[in-house]
């Protein structure tokens, strides 16, 4: 028997129907991803929305003659009132609370006015002291290098404006030309870490990359498990290089298949989460003090993401990988607040950040790595959202598969037995 003639590639490529679906999918996906990723990072200063920054007025000096408030209080009121409220959210606190806000990840930076500020300014203005008054800016590198940099720029600008405004008052009260030059910008600025992190923390980026690894490994492993199970059960072809095979179909419904995939996900995640810890901490030396908690959190994150991938694949079939990529990566990365703070991205990304998983995971990882695993530093919210994600993944996956099974929507290769005839 003669074999069928082999089609040539040129003949296949001339068929316009071959081009429609992949061309449309590639074009739409390319535009959507470009809009999502580039739209969130092009103008962080222009997108600022209530970036939390604190000002600690420790000035205990008496007011200058003829004034009701000391200079520290005057400068504090001036900074808060003159900064656009939609851009920066200034919080006036004491020094102890300022350090607590830094340690809880609730402030990107702090501007500190020292205890003897008014007395020092008065002495310098009178030519009785050479000590220059100073503001101190406390940074929070645990909130990410970009977020900390934005807060430093904001506090430095505020400090410079306050210094020049004070200089205009002081120069108007003296006739000494040399002193006028010195008093034109009388206050110096010192920048230092307000909440230091370890030297092996990637300048505050280790939390972002560790979170990305958690999600990416879970996404890839989840899809690998799904494909592997389908291949083993005979619902997908196995093709490695030039070798192609297909196993006999195992008669199993969608719900039972999902159970197999989810159980395998839970078991394999034990290995992948452990290897991730060994690699990042044991081999590469990433700073992590709460290692047991980090492993437990990492396992739970990878489990929930993996179960979510299985549920989405079970519900959407062949396009499930694309849907899960959109949920866990394409929409999640720009709304995570990890590389670019949510306060420095357009409103659409802040909306996504309220429920997209990567934002919650990032907050939890940051709390464990940088903020002593404090619940109010984002860890409690992360745990709550993980529980919610687990429940939603299980419910969505099994509701959809049970629905398909009840309607008799069998998978390819699985057919119900024929009904008996009279």
TrEMBL record:
- What membrane topology is annotated for this entry? Multi-pass membrane protein
Q: State its location(s).
A: Cell membrane
Q: Does the keyword Transmembrane helix apply?
A: yes
Keyword annotations: Cell membrane, Membrane, Transmembrane, Transmembrane helix
The family database entries (Pfam families) matched by this protein are listed as:
DUF3533
- Going by the entry's taxonomy, the superkingdom of the source organism is recorded as Bacteria
- Residues crossing the lipid bilayer are 18-42, 207-225, 263-286, 292-315, 322-342, 382-401
- Can you give the residue ranges of the DUF3533 domain? 31-387
The record's comment on protein family reads: Belongs to the ABC-2 integral membrane protein family.
Q: What protein name applies here?
A: YhgE/Pip domain-containing protein
List the top taxonomic levels of the source: Bacteria, Bacillati, Actinomycetota, Actinomycetes, Kitasatosporales
